[in-house]
Design a protein that fits this description.
By secondary structure, this protein is of the alpha+beta class. Helix content is 23%, strand content 26%.
């Protein structure tokens, strides 16, 4: 399975492809189970670079009741912040944080990552 991600040009926020538009939460990302569909979505996203920077596909794995990025780096990135310290989806809490914190898989970190809940 794959998902398509990028960063918004306006503020650097991490976004995920969802049926022709960009969504802010990983849990809303459209998942592709075949290479052709994933590559078509990536090509469409790359044709509109006035909104995002460098869209690319990431591998995802099953995580409990949902899905999570396979790469630990992408799990942290999915929670934000990207390049703005005042951003951070982890500030909202909720199921994205829980799924991404508890995801099992080959790319799970051997250390601990403290996700800071902002006020």
């Amino acid at each position: 399975m794959k998902a398509l991600t990028a960063n918004l040009l306006a503020d650097g926020e991490v976004v995920f492809w969802k049926q022709g538009r960009w969504a802010f939460r990983f849990s809303e990302a459209e998942l592709f189970d075949d290479e052709e569909s994933a590559e078509l979505a990536e090509a469409k996203a790359k044709s509109d670079l006035t909104i995002v920077v460098d869209p690319y596909l990431i591998d995802v794995i099953e995580a409990g009741e949902g899905w999570a990025p396979l790469s630990f780096r992408e799990r942290v990135r999915a929670l934000g912040p990207s390049n703005h310290p005042q951003h951070g989806k982890q500030a909202d809490g909720g199921e994205d944080v829980e799924l991404l914190q508890n995801a099992q898989g080959a790319a799970r970190s051997s250390g601990r990552v403290n996700l800071i809940k902002r006020k």
